[in-house]
Amino acid sequence: MESMQAAGRGTRGEWSAALRRAAGYFVLWMVISGAGSVDVLPGIAVAALAAWVSLRLMPPDPVGGSVRWLAAVGLFARFARISVLAGLDVARRALSPRMRLAPGYVHYRPEMPPSDALGLYLAMTSQMPGTIPSGRDPSGAVAYHCLDAAQPVAAQLAEEERRLLVALGGALGSAAVDPGRDGRPA
């Protein structure tokens, strides 16, 4: 697909993305500036410039995926809840002399191909207490170092990947994996 700059004119999706971004930046400008009438013209100029820069730094997804914002908010809320609970569990295990730790590696092969979506997934799972991605093996699986490898870590990772795929809705290169009607990768 040609870029807006190379073609001289963009596709309908590129113009739509530019207008959505410009509108968002304009609203942000008006909120920050106090929404006075003298702020409208500078706000339009700043929003247009910010949208142009954002399109150069992060072009629209070439396959046209769009984030499902309600699912993304749910994913974030779940991530926050799980992180707090898992953090308390890690602290309990670390501070209790009788708690059993069974450190080890669990290998999990994500459904996502190398993409921004996979990078987001790895970043997201690196923030989950008790597990941290430690590299890839030759088969493409990610080795996760775990505080307790006896836990169902692979099942938890698969669930997080499924939820992320649903929230991304094909964006960031996740379109290669169709989560299907039930939200599970096909």
Textual characterization of the structure:
A 3-stranded antiparallel sheet has the order 1-3-2. A hairpin with a 5-residue loop joins strand 2 and strand 3. Helix 2 crosses helix 3 (40-57) and helix 4 (69-95) runs antiparallel to helix 6. The protein folds into 2 domains: 4-57; 69-176, no CATH class. 53% of the residues lie in helices and 9% in strands. It is mainly alpha-helical and 186 residues long. It contains 6 helices and 3 strands; from the N terminus they run ααααβαββα. The chain has helices spanning 4-7, 12-33, 40-57, 69-95, 116-126, 153-168; strands at 104-108, 131-136, 142-146. Mean pLDDT is 78; it is low at 1-8 and 181-186.
For the structure shown, list the relevant keywords.
186 residues, 6 helices, 3 strands, 9% strand, disordered N terminus, disordered C terminus
